[in-house]
Amino acid sequence: MLYLNDQKLSPSAPSGRSILEFIREEQQLKGTKLVCREGDCGACSVLLGSLQADGKLHYQNITSCIAPLANAYGKQIVTIEGLNLKNGRLNRIQQALKEAAATQCGFCTPGFVVALSNMALQKAMGKDLSPKDALSGNICRCTGYKSIERAAKQIFELLQREKPDLQKLVQLELLPRYFLNMPQKLKELQHQQSSNGQPSFQHTFVGGGTDLYVQQGEALSLGEVSPLCSQSQLSGISVKNNTYHIGAATTISQIREHPQWQKDFPKLHEMLRLVASLPIRNMATLAGNFVNASPIGDMSIFFLALGARLQLLHLAQNKTREIPLEDFFLDYKKTALQKGELIQSLSCPRPDAHTHFSFEKVSKRTYLDIASVNSALKICIKNQHITEARLAIGGVKAIPLFCKKTSDFLKGKELCSKTLRQATEILQDEIAPISDVRGSATYKRLLAQQLFFAHFIKLFPKTFKLKTLLA
Amino acid sequence: MKNIDSDKHLRGESLYLDDLPTLQGSLHAMVFASPTAHGLLQKLELEEARKSCGVWGILTARDIPGENQIGNIIPDEPLFAEKEIHYRGQPIALILAESREAARQARQKIKVEIEEFPAVTTAEEAFEKGMFITEPRTFTMGDVDRAFAKCAHVFEGKTFTNGQEHLYLETQAAYAIPAEGDQIKIISSTQGPSQVQKAAAQVLGLPMHKIEVEVIRLGGGFGGKEDQATPWAVMAALGAQLSRRPVKLVLSRSDDLLMTGKRHPYSARFKIGLDENLKILAYEARFLQNAGAAADLSPAVAERTLFHATNSYFVKNARLSVYSCRTHLPPNTAFRGFGGPQGMFVMEAAIALAAQKLKIEARHIQQANLLQEGDRFPYGQRAEQALARKSWETAYLHYKADDLCRKAEDFNKKHEYIKKGVAFMPICFGISFTNTPMNQARALVHVYRDGSVGISTGAVEMGQGVNTKMLQVAASCFSIQPERIKIETTNTTRVANTSPSAASATSDLNGKALLKACEQIKKRLLKTAAKELKTNPQKISLQNECVLIDKKDSGLRWEELVQTALLQRVSLSETAHYATPKIRFDKKREKGRPFSYHVYGTAIITAKVDGLRGTYQIESVQIAHDFGKSMNTAIDLGQVEGGLVQGLGWMCMEELAYDKNGRLLSNALSTYKIPDLFSVPERIEVVPLEDEGHEAAILKSKAVGEPPLMYGIGAYFAILNAMRAFQSDLEPFFNAPMTPEKVLTGLLKKQVKNKPLHVEKRQIG
């Protein structure tokens, strides 16, 4: 059971059906568009409203083309039709876009309306979302964005001025009235839902679906899936003994918005802005990124540097084992996960006062793009000496690479240019990039060197200069 | 006035092809295409696929009742490959099934054997092997060789500009519905409904009047649906003809990327000669166009390259030639600018090279050579109402260009890792189809008895706002409220023999025809009013839905006037025809007056380069643009901003990649990146040139679709200038698009061994 806008439905479609197909084909709501089927354009954006423990509805925008229907059970899907006012007039967001002449061919437009509605709803939940962040997952080929930006800015300013709650959003005609009844309705729905129980191997496991549905969406859409995101024991972040314990199905957005993480990593917001787009971060899980084992998985690189360990659960035997993340990646798209196992959680130490962390990524397009090379560095410095270093680089080998030799070399050395010049030679031996659509092997080697230097230049600008490092 | 589709778009209520309700009994079609770029089809096994669940049938060339031919300019393109395979993605068969899923599963069961031959993917290789679409063309003016001999400075170089995927958000789509007898109605997402009609008639073996083509609107076109919407529409029509059931064919994104052509990649060599005052005395350029496997519109695109090869500059002695080279890529096609941008890039590269060698800023050369009134283009036309200098000066003064350049220099002195570069980009773009006969249009106007108005033209709405402009033309002529007017779908039974919506000329051509039709009805209405009010027609006028006598309200309202006219048996319908006057072109002499007028403008682009990572950002683009007398500033501004950003994408982000076997590597939105909100310049400013507009433009409002794209070219040179700020002796390279890879390897050249970039193996994300 779920709500589609204000309609309660019991879908007959299989749980693996993409939400987009469900909306367009089964429910005949044609305002949501299919463009890329990869979560790369936002034309299929919808909002997903889910009831929180505090009884409030939490909304987030997702790309419905790569989201399984199963991830909407017990929740509310909001499409463009569900954002329209009943009287046929334009709501405040639509009005602002019209005034700014921000629609040309119109194909991307519903997605932009949904994304800006999300910005308004986030504000009502007390979260500030900048217009650019709010629209980070939406592509338009006609307007050049400036008109859209002008409209978004106007709505943003309105939100800053009014600081609306849900009630006020409705009053301001940013949302239709029925939104006010949704928390109650979803509460009733939840009572009718039976609990999900243990995940089963009968069907394909799906986390956020953001990679799986890009690769196998057509096949998965035909049958049932075993959703992991609805398993509450697989999600969430806790801190014990200066160690983070993170559920496998925790999303990138959850990490990015976690108060303790933000405190421990002051640049977290900026760093994770380089990872996917808002809707993808809302959906994509950490374990999903690991299991996909892409050589340039941003979160793999991130957590390799942090020294994460994985807790693997064997379902049938109900046994767990723990391995360091760097031992998880065996070869191209091959992991240590055995038949019957899934990632249950991961843990990593919290940084102390001596620890510095840096994440670097270069791609053809800065945002929402797959890296040519990405890299993360965790480094502890005491008395100008490196007491611990963990360097990870993606896009330079068949697996997301923890640079063990380079890291080992750095340990105990003085923090100086000479150390880095030596380290970069070791690094070049450790990597073996190939040429592909994201860059030539030569370029990737060069980029690995530059990003390695960039970590240090950024963290210790007074100590390091590029000219000296290249000399 | 805002785009009349705004409300529907914003509420998600606009109907695109795939949003139309599917009629009962509809079949879904899917194309089976060649997995090989070049070869001979030896065996096609369809039996297993035909037996697949839900399959109605599979069509191949053998099932075509008419001709297996859809070529537009040259008949060299079969609908389905029969024996010879010319590109990877070339359609071989069409699967018709009860659902898309059934079609998809059947497609996986088709087996094909192809004797594979080596593929030619670059224009240079095709040129060396003598593989051409047509004869080369050469435009000459003056005595080039003698002029070079007199030059103080002569520089030579070469350039490459890559292709560009249109990435219209709505993929290619068509829905064909059998009508009475053997007639077929095709709803198509095409910029050229008449071309679809003609090709369908030819393939189906029917006269054109039995094929009706209807277009509602397009979710983006950009030239990609001018000629290349045709095959899919014809396939759907063929399916409907043979199955007598409605057939829907909507390409998936990956099929669309794989099977359709792009903007043409060009390789070029140039030679430029200047005197000591930086006047360009002579210019020579040889363009090799990568046309792909069939002619498509390539000869016309090639021609437009020559027309724009000297951009906004007066070059007294020029020799320009273009070779349309046949390769084994999907046929490349129209894309906003239509060859013009490729020509202009080479001229700008030549100037940039000269500037670098002479150790001056390119803008000094640019400024010294801007067109003046009466200057001749290499094709013989004189510049009339030339605004090259005015646009330059307007941009220069309005945006305080000297300050801008000085600030960038100051910035560069202060920053070690980030440097700025500024570039100027003047543009001059000719308006009209260069194929003169295409410059005609018709409109049909009905005034209904309740005073409402229905308008049909040949114009296709694809987001450019042409319907809004058409409505404005009619509303201003009749002086009635916009709500009274409806712009009908584009349909070949109402307006026949149309030219495609292309060449930036759609509003001009269709608007002028529409204006004529409205004026004729208006003339009859004024006569009716005069009779009714017992006065002279000369004293009657219409204003704000009222009939005026000597500019005073007569009390007679629009609705009453229409009623009266109907009772008096006055015709309330009209069709009118417009043919652009004064244009001609003699292809034998390569001289004439091909363009109705030119659009001018100048952009100043500032780029910022990160020397540590090789990344860059276009910081600002400041434009002085020649709108003429804009009839809709919101729509026209949208065209400038949107066109510019598409040009920026082409120049510094979007990278098409094929491997040596003609396989598209940038085959998804995850591997082919177009500009997003973060990558567009923080500031885009546009100031209109103060100008009276041009008589040949609709309501003096100049064509605006394509010209702004070419401002984007300046971004390439701004980045290059920022790189020069890191290294003053940087060897300039003209290999677009710019990429972070080229910047980093360019800046760290000493570190990089000379390894050519080639793709070995794809690594999936």
Structural notes for this entry:
The complex is a heterodimer of chains A (471) and B (765). Chain A is 35% helix and 20% strand. Chain A is an alpha+beta fold. Chain A folds into 2 domains: 2-192, Roll (Ubiquitin-like (UB roll)), CATH 3.10.20; 231-471, Uridine Diphospho-n-acetylenolpyruvylglucosamine Reductase, domain 3 (2-Layer Sandwich). In chain A, the strands form 5 sheets. In chain A, strands 2-1-5-3-4 form a 5-stranded mixed beta sheet. In chain A, strands 8-9-14-10-11 form a 5-stranded antiparallel beta sheet. In chain A, strand 12 and strand 13 form a beta hairpin. The mean pLDDT of chain A is 95. With 765 residues, chain B is α+β, with helices and mostly antiparallel strands. In chain B, strand 27 and strand 28 form a beta hairpin. The longest helix of chain B is centred in the C-terminal third of the chain and has 27 residues, at 506-532. Chain B is globular. The model of chain B is unreliable at 754-765 (pLDDT under 50). Chains A and B meet through helix 2, helix 3, helix 5 and helix 18 of A and helix 1, helix 17 and helix 19 of B.
Q: Regions of chain B with pLDDT < 50 over 5+ consecutive residues?
A: 754-765
Name of the CATH architecture of the largest domain in chain A: 2-Layer Sandwich
Query: Which percent bin holds the helix content of chain A?
Result: 25-40%
Could you name the CATH homologous superfamily of the largest domain in chain B? Aldehyde oxidase/xanthine dehydrogenase, molybdopterin binding domain
Provide keyphrases for this structure:
heterodimer, A: 471 residues, alpha+beta, Ubiquitin-like (UB roll), Uridine Diphospho-n-acetylenolpyruvylglucosamine Reductase, domain 3, 2 domains, five-stranded antiparallel sheet, 19 helices, globular, B: 765 residues, Aldehyde Oxidoreductase, domain 3, Aldehyde Oxidoreductase, domain 4, 3 domains, eight-stranded mixed sheet, six-stranded mixed sheet, 25% strand, disordered C terminus
